[in-house]
Amino acid sequence: MKGNDLSLLPRVKDGWTFLYVEHARIEQDAQAILILDEDGRTPVPVAALSTLLLGPGTVVTHAAIGALAKSGCSIVWCGEDATKFYASGQGETRKSGNLMAQAAAWADPQRRLETVKRMYRMRFPEALPEGLTIEQLRGREGVRVRETYATWSRETGVPWTGRSYQKNDWASADPVNRALSAANACLYGVVHGAVVAMGFSPGLGFIHTGKLLAFVYDVADLYKCETSIPAAFRAASANEDGRVESMARRFVREAFRDARILERIVRDVPTVLGIRGGGEEPVEELDETTTGLWDPAVGVIGGGRNFSLAAERGEDP
Q1: What's the rounded Cα separation, in Å, for the pair 232 and 227?
Q2: What is the fold, at CATH topology level, of the domain defined by 6-88?
Q3: pLDDT in tens, 257-299
Q4: C-alpha dist (Å) from residue 43 to 30, 39, 194, 253
Q5: pTM as predicted
Q6: Do domains 6-88 and 97-279 have the same CATH topology?
């Protein structure tokens, strides 16, 4: 891979989903990273890695962060078993077209309503009747999620009494709730990495609001019923060594692979936002080396030059 030639990098939809690391040192190893822990040295190619989740006890070198950033890998600092989100690094996008399109859809009440309805409808395998209100869509979604929990409870034999856990008393939750939190955290990490890599804002949510990951929650809800919920019940059913969280991560990784989750996120996010071109390219083309300047008459003009001389001569820039 040559320098910073982004055209040689794989698209986010072609990447792996995520890698969770804890109690280890991470160093650069040529165009890869090297994980050093009590089990030895593990080289990891980063060009096709979507998200690296850094748990407690991880030490990462400056060079390793540089290699990850150049490859477009999103870096998330999280709590034990990836159950808490602390901070993240940027993805590989260098343009703001998708972000501007997202902001435009968010700021227009009618477009936001249309986006919310598309997000709800996309969750259902069957077509819903036209003309449903937001309240009716929320109600149908509640029924769908409740039935998903009940179905997986019957199939795995794991009792389900409802979603319940305390952030400050993690161990008090039952295994299936702990597994569900761990699986959802992995889903949020992968969605967050994809959203940032595509140039969208993780905080500009449509259904969810008021949180820095509001849009991540919007997108993640499209896939929970087929990925994190089944993985959590399978993990709680197996739970062989008492480490239900690690089993949930393993099962949800398999679910991501089977569902081709990254490929679908890249396709689905522009679709729900109503962005033309499927999000493969930014809505507004800007020069790679300079930043565009907004103009009320023509939209965007080229930057990177001084307009004072033209203005003094009375010329139109």
Answers
A1: 9
A2: Ribosomal Protein L15; Chain: K; domain 2 (3.100.10)
A3: 899 888 899 899 999 999 865 544 444 444 445 566 767 777 6
A4: 10, 12, 23, 19
A5: 0.71
A6: no
